[in-house]
Amino acid sequence: MLVSIYRYNPETDDKPYTQSLEIKLPEGKDLMVLDVLALAKQEDPSVAYRRSCREGVCGSDGMNINGTNGLACITPVSNVVGPDNKLTLRPLPGLPVIRDLVVDLTTFYKQFEKVKPYLVNDQPAPDKERLQSPEERKKLDGLYECILCACCSTSCPSFWWNPEKFIGPAGLLQAYRFLADSRDTSTEQRLEALGDPFSVFRCRGIMNCVSVCPKGLNPTRAIGHIKSMLVS
Amino acid sequence: MVGKLNYLHNRGVLDWVIQRTSAALLAIYTIGMIGFLIANPNLEFETWRNLFSSPLMRVFSLVTLLFLCGHMWVGMWTVITDYLTPLQLGSYAKPIQSLCQIGIISLIIFYAIWGTFVFWSI
Ligand code: SF4
Ligand code: SF4
Ligand code: FES
Questions:
Q1: What CATH number has the domain bearing residue B112?
Q2: How far, in Å, from the CA of A212 to the mean position of ligand 1?
Q3: From A226, which residue of chain B is nearest by alpha-carbon distance?
Q4: Residue B32 belongs to domain spanning
Q5: 3-class state of residue A43 by DSSP
Q6: pLDDT given at position B1
Q7: Tell me, what DSSP letter sits at residue A133?
Q8: What's A126's DSSP letter?
């Protein structure tokens, strides 16, 4: 299979280039994209990428696979490769490249940090724990599972245009995760911090984020909830 | 439906509400106009004039015009701040943005005055 990999080392290369490698895949097996990348690295050990858990839990191998963001470790080659039998791997779009498929996620994390992704509660702590009813707990489903892989935010045009000002789908999903938490008492302050024209309202609802999320989450819906909380 | 509008003092929320309400109003106006045109296939100048000279229609038209201006401003401002950013234009972004904003505001004010004049002179 022909594997094309985006290569760029800002220290030595003037500009990025594409490296094409012919990789022989084992017969009768559907590999994950990450496995193919490992085979490519055997051919050329200088290829740089991130990975850790190799089972879709850590979120470190988000990349652009044949034009769509996803986690290399849980994307089967058969899902993304067409009849031309070509695999093109690029870094997540819109962020500075540190090297090859490794991007600088500083802006992404800064936006995450902005939404105060932790429980804020000004009531005295109870002896044991803060309880939630099963219904209250259910509201966090589809929100807490995010692994911060950045596939969504880096597929979002609004995030490309205003990465410093628009929080982006990943951050906003977490913003709503704490707005929806019955144990959090800072709803008002949280909303107050989101009412400017950029943080939330740059979302144009085109749902790129939803179509790429490897965990099947729906940031657009969460953003919709935030917008309704802001006007009601 | 829009409730207490708690956070209306925030620009983003205000813009969003303006955009949605004006869109609804513009849709109602457009549908009303189309309905009128369908109901009057052989439209005479007199009928057309009568429609616009009724005080109710005048007020409705002017309010719609005002909302149209609001709609234009929010929309154009958003386009400017999406596509004319430091990312695309570097240090020129700020002055170019300001220039475009002044241009658009002037145009909107011109349309508002001209539109009012047109509706009032029927
Ligand atoms: S919402 Fe989905 S795509 Fe976005 S960071 Fe979380 S897990 Fe990744
Ligand atoms: S729905 Fe909103 S957050 Fe998601 S990709 Fe579109 S603009 Fe970005
Ligand atoms: S390596 Fe951990 S998510 Fe892919």
A1: 1.20.1300.10
A2: 8
A3: B13
A4: 2-120
A5: helix
A6: 42
A7: -
A8: P
Residue with tokens 């989101």: A194
Parent domain of A181: 106-230
Q: What is the chain A residue with the closest CA to B20?
A: A231
Token digits of residue A220 = 């657009």
Q: Binning pLDDT at 50, 70 and 90, where does residue B5 land?
A: low
Number of domains observed in the structure of chain A? 2
Query: Is the complex ipTM more than 0.90?
Result: no
- In a 10 Å sphere around its CB, with 0-12 CB exposed, 13-18 middle and 19+ buried, how is residue A42 labelled? exposed
Quick one: three-class SS letters along chain B? CCCCCCCCCCHHHHHHHHHHHHHHHHHHHHHHHHHHHHHCCCCCHHHHHHHHHCHHHHHHHHHHHHHHHHHHHHHHHHHHHHHCCHHHHHHHHHHHHHHHHHHHHHHHHHHHHHHHHHHHCC
CA separation for the pair A211, A203 (Å, rounded) = 15
Average pLDDT of the residues in A191-197:
95
